[in-house]
Structure to design on (81 residues):
């Protein structure tokens, strides 16, 4: 996984994967290894935690990274071990 942001609320953890443009939701008490993404089956909770993460960034003045226009997938060490 490349760059990501995350927020926890109770037993739930939402991971926003920037490069994939998606959010993953995990119930940590039942899935400590984060292998079962619940975002599709719990869209309201995923949306609530995504909003919480975005609001946290605004409050703390986070400057988000921007896409590198010179990026070439074939040169990405994560894709080519």
């Amino acid at each position: 996984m490349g760059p990501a942001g995350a927020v926890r609320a109770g037993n739930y953890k939402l991971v926003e994967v920037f490069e994939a443009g998606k959010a993953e939701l995990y119930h940590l008490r039942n899935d400590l290894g984060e292998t079962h993404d619940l975002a599709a089956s719990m869209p309201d909770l995923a949306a609530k935690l995504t909003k919480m993460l975005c609001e946290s960034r605004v409050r703390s003045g986070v400057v988000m990274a921007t896409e590198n226009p010179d990026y070439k997938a074939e040169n990405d060490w994560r894709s080519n071990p």
